[in-house]
Amino acid sequence: MNREEAENCREDMEIDGNDSEMPAQRHADIIPDGFNANYLKAYYGKVFPHSDIFKWMCYGHDGKHPGCDPTYLSRREFSFTLDNDIYLRFQSYTSAYELESSIKEKCPFKIDIGPVYSVNPAKRHAYAQTGDNVFTPVERELIFDIDITDYDDVRFCCSGADICLDCWPLMTVAIKVIDTALRDDFGFNHILWVYSGRRGVHCWVCDGKARRLSNEQRAAITDYFRVYKGNENSNKKVSLVGPVLHPFLARSYTDVLKDFFEGKVLLNQNILSTEEKYEKILEMIPDESVAAELRGKWQEKRKAKDDINVVRWEQLKSLLYSGKVKHIQGLRRCIEEIIFSFTYPRLDMEVSKHMNHLLKAPFCVHPKTGRVCVPIDPNNCEEFDPTAVPTLSQLLQELNMSGSRADMDDELDRTSLGRAVRYFRSSFLQPLLKSCKEEIESAYNSRLQQSKNSLSW
């Protein structure tokens, strides 16, 4: 690194707040056993799918068609968190070789991907000196960040960054609800879901029309998903307005949320098993006389053959749906609001609203867990087990056992990461690139036709 680059590094040591650990913290304090720069060197040298990331970020602008934009990749921001407390922002590359060489040389603990800017982000200072405000994001995937720590008030098995197979299904539900809406309600097709490596999931919507959305349009889509109106001190965090549910919410409730709540959450989280837990639900009922009647039932010492959570939930539903409370407007809506409170996706809204947010690249290794950020198939997301995701040390052991190979794909297939990379290629990347090349071809032909029309005129 030369002096100018070092000065830029110091100048650009900025911390992004999205799913980021504090890069300024001494890395010795955040690295788990068996995770070190030497392991990363082998991982980036032998396993990391550099060419696939390059093809994805090009979106068909690979120079193989006269309609390609040769500056497209060079205007994309990459950011690296290094092992010497430096956070490098505004890195840019013009070729697959440059990108791969830089990753292998720097061995970043984390790779973040930012927007495509109007100019090369590495040269932004030169443009700033002209006095024109030309350095601005012009394209960026529509992204969503869902963190299980935001569910801590409705999960009792874990808290903070801890996860288990009892609470992880909350992420599965989020994937199902958001993915269906993005495809059916907004018409997006090229959607990538990725495990964050520790406690959540990321979503990349990569259709051309999604990448070109303005901040205002992104905010509108984000608000489409919003149902949480309260704060951490509110008894009632979900407000479902109107006499009937919006069709999107009704579909989510019927197809996913209701069965998940009654089949999983009630039993796995034991949400009605103790007074402390059931009081939180009683506080969500706006009629105190109804809440008091339920409290009286639940405080009685009775032995039940069925699970206590199921028994109490059936009692709650029976009372709220009974004839004597039908006249109370909004009371029967409590059932839906309780279920939404415990199961509906909790998005980091600010991440999705603005183009300039960074998001961790797929196939990075999380520095807290050593797990690889692998794609998740939304059609089979119930099968995804975060505790079984390949770790850095596991991959290196697999490579050592397989011996030295000249062919990188062959080496990859000999590791437990091979399946994830093949899914990324076949189910996401190939259909995406086919669509991108068709879009580039169509735009190019349209420009040619316009040119011919102007000449003939």
UniProtKB/TrEMBL annotation:
<keyword id="KW-0862">Zinc</keyword>
<dbReference type="InterPro" id="IPR002755">
    <property type="entry name" value="DNA_primase_S"/>
</dbReference>
<keyword id="KW-0804">Transcription</keyword>
<keyword id="KW-0639">Primosome</keyword>
<dbReference type="GO" id="GO:0046872">
    <property type="term" value="F:metal ion binding"/>
</dbReference>
<feature type="region of interest" description="Disordered">
    <location>
        <begin position="1"/>
        <end position="20"/>
    </location>
</feature>
<protein>
    <recommendedName>
        <fullName>DNA primase</fullName>
        <ecNumber>2.7.7.-</ecNumber>
    </recommendedName>
</protein>
<keyword id="KW-0479">Metal-binding</keyword>
<feature type="compositionally biased region" description="Basic and acidic residues">
    <location>
        <begin position="1"/>
        <end position="12"/>
    </location>
</feature>
<dbReference type="Pfam" id="PF01896">
    <property type="entry name" value="DNA_primase_S"/>
</dbReference>
<dbReference type="GO" id="GO:0006269">
    <property type="term" value="P:DNA replication, synthesis of primer"/>
</dbReference>
<keyword id="KW-0235">DNA replication</keyword>
<dbReference type="InterPro" id="IPR014052">
    <property type="entry name" value="DNA_primase_ssu_euk/arc"/>
</dbReference>
<comment type="similarity">
    <text>Belongs to the eukaryotic-type primase small subunit family.</text>
</comment>
<keyword id="KW-0240">DNA-directed RNA polymerase</keyword>
<keyword id="KW-0548">Nucleotidyltransferase</keyword>
<dbReference type="GO" id="GO:0005658">
    <property type="term" value="C:alpha DNA polymerase:primase complex"/>
</dbReference>
<keyword id="KW-0808">Transferase</keyword>
<dbReference type="GO" id="GO:0003899">
    <property type="term" value="F:DNA-directed RNA polymerase activity"/>
</dbReference>
